[in-house]
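Blinded run. Sample ID left blank on purpose so nobody reads anything into the name before looking at the predicted structure. Input follows.
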Amino acid sequence: MGDIRDFDNFTTNPITAFKNAGYYKHRAGWIWEHTCEHSAFYCIESGKCTVKTQNIEHICSVGDVIYIKDFENVILSNDENGDLSYYFISFFNERDFDFQINTVTRDTNCLRLFRDISEFHRSGAQLSKIKVAELFLRLIYILCSQRLEKSKDYADNYKLFSAVEYININYYKKITPEYLSQISGYSPAHLRRLFVKNYGVPPMEYILNKKIDMAKEMLLDAPEKTMAEIAELVGFCSASYLCKIFKKQTGISPAEYKRRIDYV
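Blinded prediction complete.
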């Protein structure tokens, strides 16, 4: 008999709930003192910021994530020598639950995550709300994992995910290993090893597979489109090259693939 463990009321009474997100930029000499009824994260994009909570002062710079608990008095300020810009996320959480997140966490990978949350939140689309919830929980997990033994693995997975998600959205563009390296922060060789480890194929083959998957969808969902049109939409230089790669990846031609699906 397996060991089955029920989450009980953990899933029915959420420990945290996303409230808002945004971006601010302040002139030199800005100062803000407030006590919020909700918790918040601030991620510094540029400049330096002084944070005072409970008589403790922190000096924060680019990439630092500041965690302010609900009803905690905080003073944020920047000096007279430069502007300050940061992303923020506010949220509610159970008073008795301790995230065990440091007041200031150094994790430059989180900056991209803050940007993504802010952009999806600003769009206001229904699907974007689901994406915001996913990214917000990932942020919580990454920040909490700073105190876990395998925190580096979680950060690595997020950096790899940045490259994968870029491919999934921009598969039709010309994508080079060097550009994926810039997105993830890894060298092309190391990124290749991570792709093979996690997805079974190197980055360029992953891109080809994505193109073919999208071509399959178009063959079924847009039968009026010619092979030349599909080739252009998924990022191949010609219909003949699409057919060649399609057969290499699937073992059959696009026409045969469509006939088999139509038959089923």
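Unblinding after everyone has recorded impressions. The radius of gyration is 23 Å.
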